[in-house]
Design brief:
114 residues; mainly alpha
Length: 114
C-alpha cells in the first residue's frame, strides 16, 4: 500500500513539465525567496522521484531473481511469497506512474523498463 501511495503522490505533485537540474551557476545566483522556494521544491521532488524509481525498479527486479533462484514454484518459502508480492506491487507502481508522467523526468527509462 505504501508503494502505491508513493506513486500516487508523485502523480499528483509532478508538474506538467520536466524539471531540469540546476547548473552550478544557477545554484550560486542570487534569486528572490519565492524563486528559491520553487527551485528547492523542484530539486527535492526530482531527487525523491529518482530515488523512488530506483527503489521500485530494484524491488520489481527481485521477483525475477527470486523466480530464477527458486526454479520450482513448490520450493518457494513463505518469505519468497512475501517478496514476490512486494515486487509485483512495485511493478504495478511503476506502471501506475508511466501514463500520467510520460512528459516528466526519467520517462524514457521508465517506459523501457516497464
Amino acid at each position: 500500500l505504501a508503494l502505491l501511495t508513493e506513486a500516487q503522490l508523485f502523480r499528483d505533485l509532478a508538474p506538467g513539465f520536466a524539471i531540469r537540474p540546476l547548473t552550478e551557476t544557477e545554484r550560486a545566483a542570487n534569486v528572490s525567496k519565492e524563486v528559491a522556494r520553487v527551485r528547492n521544491f523542484e530539486q527535492s521532488l526530482l531527487g525523491a522521484y529518482q530515488r523512488a524509481l530506483t527503489r521500485l525498479r530494484g524491488l520489481a527486479a527481485s521477483v525475477l531473481s527470486t523466480a530464477k533462484r527458486a526454479g520450482d514454484k513448490h520450493a518457494r518459502s513463505s518469505d519468497d511469497c512475501g517478496s514476490r508480492d512486494v515486487a509485483i506491487t512495485a511493478f504495478a507502481s511503476l506502471c501506475h506512474l508511466l501514463p500520467p508522467l510520460a512528459h516528466f523526468n526519467e520517462a524514457e527509462p521508465l517506459a523501457s523498463y516497464v
